[in-house]
């Protein structure tokens, strides 16, 4: 079903992203349910989303869409009546997907249902129980260690019932039907960097791309983590076959340096472009090899699909202390880091859009460039000027096997100069675009 959108013009992308995060932060999201739909509806105020709902019980490869979970409120009261946990205060206080319960119990009976993080003793941890029926509360470890003996009152007012999983696509057509996939998970409650920063950057990126000419078709996917991408892949195999490049966006608002996790292939064009783009710009960046753990790249890069999808982030998941705790809050993400992340991804996309393979139409020896006005008429210099050198490099390596990025890397000439040389050679009928397939 199509959802109408109002495009919000904003002179400050950084503030627009922060406002999106502030609006989404209080929502109790999960992999299904009202919080997920509310999140997608807010994104849909700025992008015309195509929403899909897949019924509980539906088989998606080796997985099954679970019952839909919705929470009204969860509270835990101490023996003296004081409130220890209340999802009206912070929705990380309940184990996500907890079964409903209303009971009184001893501390010994309660302890197996409590979760805390000694490493972050003053923060509430984020815990889930999507596929194994359970219930529980999450507390700061400093609070948990001070619990007294006595009778505790627990109440989780939740429902688990047949419903649906919801995900959204946003597609910007390009000159060709080959796709650049941008994916952001949208299921975590009140985690500002892991979850909301990726969404906010994706929305702003889509708004920017909407105003540009595009060689590739861009597909944005907003879906709950793991089960969402699995569901999308199970229902969109034709789309998956058109994915030429892809990025998973996550953890883009913290102060760490940019980090890129390669696709499973390791040498896909997106992998080479990211590395070369940041090497030429001298931007500090860490490059990590693919491992089958992390975000939705695990599904896009699974062996049956093996899509060229990497992950762009700042500090990787699990490597900053606030990760998956209440300390991943609105104070952790900063507008300047969101803007820096957005600009980095724009740079990657601009490089991808420039990169092309060509065929030299005069491959037997050098064509005479001078009579075409492309080469100095004065000979004898020790080395041609930079632009003329770029022409020679492009002509020599335009064999249908090497793309412009290869040529820029080999020649150590900036890609923009190499691309400009290619454009001129195409105008002079000395190059043609190589067949895509």
The multimeric state of the shown protein is single chain
What name goes with the CATH superfamily of the largest domain?
Zn peptidases
Q: In the residues, how many domains can be counted?
A: 3
Find the count of extended strands (DSSP E, 2+ residues): 19
Shape descriptor reads elongated
Low-confidence stretches: 1-10
What is the fold named in CATH at topology level of the largest domain? Aminopeptidase
In what range is the share of β-strand residues? Answer: 15-25%
Task: Return the CATH class of the largest domain.
Answer: Alpha Beta
Proportion in helices: 25-40%
Assign the structural class, choosing from mainly alpha, mainly beta, alpha/beta, alpha+beta, or little secondary structure. alpha/beta
CA-based gyration radius: 26 Å
Structural notes for this entry:
This protein is α/β, with parallel strands linked by helices and 437 residues long. It is built from 13 helices and 19 strands. The chain has 3 domains: 13-65 and 165-354, 3-Layer(aba) Sandwich (Aminopeptidase); 69-161, Domain of unknown function DUF2172 (Glucose Oxidase, domain 1, 3-Layer(bba) Sandwich); 357-433, Winged helix-like DNA-binding domain superfamily/Winged helix DNA-binding domain (Arc Repressor Mutant, subunit A). The protein has an 8-stranded mixed β-sheet with strand order 1-10-12-11-13-16-14-15, sandwiched between helices. Strands 5-4-9-6 form a 4-stranded antiparallel β-sheet. A 3-stranded antiparallel β-sheet has the order 18-17-19. A hairpin with a 2-residue loop joins strand 2 and strand 3 (63-64). The protein is elongated and about 95 Å long. Mean pLDDT is 93; it is low at 1-10.
């Amino acid at each position: 079903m199509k959802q109408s959108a109002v495009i919000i013009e904003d002179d400050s992308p950084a503030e627009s992203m922060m406002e999106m995060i502030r609006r989404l932060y209080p929502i109790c999201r999960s992999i299904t349910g009202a919080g997920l739909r509310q999140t997608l509806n807010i994104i849909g105020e700025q992008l015309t989303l195509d929403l899909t709902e897949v019924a509980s019980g539906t088989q998606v490869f080796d997985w099954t869409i679970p019952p839909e979970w919705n929470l009204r409120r969860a509270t835990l009261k101490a023996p003296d009546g004081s409130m220890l946990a209340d999802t009206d205060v912070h929705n990380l206080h309940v184990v996500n997907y907890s079964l409903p319960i209303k009971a009184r119990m001893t501390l010994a009976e309660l302890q197996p249902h409590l979760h805390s993080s000694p490493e972050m003793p003053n923060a509430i941890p984020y815990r889930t129980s999507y596929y194994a029926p359970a219930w529980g509360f999450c507390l700061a470890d400093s609070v948990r260690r001070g619990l007294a003996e006595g009778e505790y009152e627990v109440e989780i007012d939740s429902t688990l019932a047949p419903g649906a999983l919801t995900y959204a696509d946003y597609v910007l057509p390009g000159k060709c039907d080959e796709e650049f996939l941008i994916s952001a998970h949208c299921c975590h409650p009140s985690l500002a960097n892991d979850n909301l920063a990726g969404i906010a950057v994706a929305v702003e990126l889509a708004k920017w791309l909407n105003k540009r000419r595009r060689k590739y078709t861009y597909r944005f996917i907003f879906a709950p983590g793991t089960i969402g991408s699995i569901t999308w892949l199970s229902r969109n195999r034709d789309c998956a076959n058109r994915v030429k490049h892809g990025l998973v966006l996550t953890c883009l608002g913290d102060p760490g340096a940019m980090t890129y996790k390669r696709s499973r292939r390791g040498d896909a064009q997106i992998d080479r472009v990211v590395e070369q783009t940041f090497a030429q710009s001298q931007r500090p960046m860490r490059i990590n090899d693919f491992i089958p753990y992390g975000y939705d790249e695990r599904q896009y890069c699974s062996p049956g699909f093996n899509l060229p999808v990497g992950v762009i982030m700042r500090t990787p998941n699990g490597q900053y202390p606030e990760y998956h705790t209440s300390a991943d809050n609105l104070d952790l993400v900063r507008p300047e880091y969101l803007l820096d992340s957005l600009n980095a991804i724009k740079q990657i996309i601009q490089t991808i859009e420039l990169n092309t393979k060509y065929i030299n139409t005069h491959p037997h020896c050098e064509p005479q460039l001078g009579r075409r006005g492309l080469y100095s008429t004065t000979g004898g210099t020790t080395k041609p000027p930079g632009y003329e050198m770029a022409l020679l490099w492009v002509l020599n390596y335009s064999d249908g096997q090497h793309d412009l990025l290869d040529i820029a890397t080999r020649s150590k000439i900036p890609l923009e100069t190499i691309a400009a040389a290619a454009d001129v050679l195409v105008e002079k009928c000395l190059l043609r675009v190589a067949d895509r397939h």
